[in-house]
Amino acid sequence: MPDEKLRRLVAMRDCDRILSGVRPKTMRDRLADLEAGGDLDGWPDFYGDGPVEALEARVADLLGTQAAVFFPTGTMAQQVAVRYGADRTGVAAAALHPLGHQEVHERHAYAELTGLRGIASTDRPRNPTAADIAALAEPVSTVVFELPLRDAGFVLPGWDELVDAVKATRAIGARVHFDGARIWESTSHLGRSLREVASLADSVYVSFYKSIEGISGAVLAGTEDLARYARAWRHRYGGTLFQQWPAILIAMAGLDRELPRLPEYVRHARTIAESLAELPGAKVFPQPPHTHQFRLWLPHSADALNAAVLTVAERDRVWFAGNWQDATVPGWAMTEITVAAEALQWTPTDVADTATRLLAELP
């Protein structure tokens, strides 16, 4: 691990208060999550049985689907979802957002490994609308909706807009797939339960390490037919590991601990966003946030902000927000704010006080 990254992890871990993000955990810290996730005196999984099947059943029940299949990575699960659509419809093209995870963060695995073509579902920084789908110039097997669309600022459609887009997808004979890595926290903005949201889709992918604070793993949920197909292709892709019980038990612990608290995080994110928007030159998007994550811009360089955050953390034991990146507009930097358990005690006064300390360190 690079020395600078290790320094940031140690500084954040040792802070008394954290505004954005989740306190880093050592491997020993993670052992407590294993204890909380299940009976450690029970038998581990062997090639996907036991604890793996228990987690699959739990997620299928949460989403209201017929079945669910555990994958070691979301990238693998997403490939299987779009491959299934192409195989079942005979159309080797899928409608994907240019800012979606499959285009930006998976090295175009759907094309390189499955031979599918990606068709842009829209060129706007939001999920496709019914009009966008109706205007597609060629047939597609699947339309992918990323809920929320992370690289557009964790943005979500309204419920009625999403329902209309799903109807438009059915009208062109395509399947609906939800890239739901962060679907857990999307229910507040959509105003519907997890089951109601998932019921719109033919398949849903969820992640365990993003909002649930697991260590790895994902589930692809849908029909029994999809599950049989997914298990076969999981094996072919090398995803049927001998044992995965640590990831399974920590995911179980996260579902117990974090899932019920996500609506509270979303509500408090609105308070934090309002406070951050009052900083000199600050820009917050979306305002109010759609989930417990949103974007913050400040008129300073990323290097200066990252250095200032580290200085304040090591001196005052208070973590503001890290991982600043220079924006496309010169002189500005952007970071993603994540409001989780550590931030719930922060008041607008706390935000302003810490920001004052941070800005005092900037050149």
TrEMBL record:
<dbReference type="InterPro" id="IPR015421">
    <property type="entry name" value="PyrdxlP-dep_Trfase_major"/>
</dbReference>
<dbReference type="GO" id="GO:0005829">
    <property type="term" value="C:cytosol"/>
</dbReference>
<dbReference type="InterPro" id="IPR015424">
    <property type="entry name" value="PyrdxlP-dep_Trfase"/>
</dbReference>
<dbReference type="Pfam" id="PF01212">
    <property type="entry name" value="Beta_elim_lyase"/>
</dbReference>
<keyword id="KW-0663">Pyridoxal phosphate</keyword>
<dbReference type="GO" id="GO:0006567">
    <property type="term" value="P:L-threonine catabolic process"/>
</dbReference>
<dbReference type="GO" id="GO:0006545">
    <property type="term" value="P:glycine biosynthetic process"/>
</dbReference>
<protein>
    <submittedName>
        <fullName>L-threonine aldolase</fullName>
    </submittedName>
</protein>
<comment type="similarity">
    <text>Belongs to the threonine aldolase family.</text>
</comment>
<dbReference type="InterPro" id="IPR001597">
    <property type="entry name" value="ArAA_b-elim_lyase/Thr_aldolase"/>
</dbReference>
<feature type="domain" description="Aromatic amino acid beta-eliminating lyase/threonine aldolase">
    <location>
        <begin position="26"/>
        <end position="288"/>
    </location>
</feature>
<dbReference type="InterPro" id="IPR015422">
    <property type="entry name" value="PyrdxlP-dep_Trfase_small"/>
</dbReference>
<dbReference type="GO" id="GO:0008732">
    <property type="term" value="F:L-allo-threonine aldolase activity"/>
</dbReference>
